Amino acid sequence: MHRFYFITDRKKFKKPFLDTVKEVLEKGVRLIQIREKDLPDDELYKLAESVLEISKGYDAKIFINSRVDIAYMLGLDGVHLTSRSVPVSVVKRKFPDLIVGKSCHSVEDVLNAEDEGADYVFISPIFEVEGKGKPIGIEGLKKVLEVAKIPVYALGGINNSNVEEILKTGVYGVAGIRLFL
Known about the structure:
Elements: E1 4-7, H1 17-26, E2 31-34, H2 41-54, E3 61-65, H3 68-74, E4 78-81, H4 88-94, E5 99-104, H5 107-116, E6 120-123, H6 137-147, E7 152-154, H7 163-167, E8 173-176
Parallel strand pairs: 1-2, 1-8, 2-3, 3-4, 4-5, 5-6, 6-7, 7-8
């Protein structure tokens, strides 16, 4: 898995969706999570199909937020589960070839995700992000890293001015939307 993980949110894009994805791929990002929660099933399926097509030749891994069905039907690399999704263990048992990640907000969440069989986790928010709860900060991130046995991606409020500080903690990688735009 690569260190930089891009999460889509077309409402925050200044350019058309596929142009933005292509631009991120051109910058060298090789992990993309399709996270368009408000799209109807048919549109989400078509969008994921387009991302898969545009990413050919980049050796990128494509994930989708919570939609195991779409990941399976399109042969995506994985699925990212929210803190309120179905258990990781169920997905891993039924779809052993999918890479499964989980969003976590505490050390306890990370340990639970590991026990369930997650391949990686997001820990968030690191810094202040409107509507995303109390940030854990650098010290909270370090506490997670002390116990985590699987790759941990830091998420939330990470930008060009603090990304180096995050990477110096020893975190596996960083995830974000605006960070890569």
